[in-house]
Amino acid sequence: MASMDDIDDPQPCCANLRCKSMTYREDERPGLLHVEDAMGYWCLLTNVPLGPDDDVASHRDCQPGRECHKPAPQLKFAVE
Predict the structure, then answer these.
(1) Is 72 part of a structural domain of the chain?
(2) Domain span including residue 29
(3) What is the pLDDT of residues 63-77, one digit of tens each?
């Protein structure tokens, strides 16, 4: 969970977790979202606020250890 020092930084989560802020925050991407209690999250696999296991889709719940969790893709940067 995010500490007070990095509350403004996106935090790792399931790559299938989605939220509205992904449409306007440039630093968010699948598997890396801001932690906000008031944010409405949903699962890409179900398109509702529940995952395929019928548990809540939220930043707190969509973490490693959950059966349906998908790790964030590793970004590769080209070196010139």
Answers:
(1) no
(2) 8-67
(3) 999 999 999 887 665
Is 75 domain-assigned? no
Q: Is residue 45 part of a domain?
A: yes
**At 29, which amino acid appears?**
R
Pick from 25, 18, 11: which is nearest to 64 by CA? Answer: 11
Q: What is the pTM of this model?
A: 0.80
Domain count, the chain: 1
Backbone φ and ψ for 56, nearest 5 degrees, come out as -60, 140
E strands, the chain, are: 11-12, 17-19, 32-33, 41-43
Can you tell me the distance from the alpha carbon of 64 to that of 38, in angstroms, rounded to the nearest whole number?
22
Q: Show the low-confidence residues of the chain (pLDDT under 70).
A: 1-7, 75-80
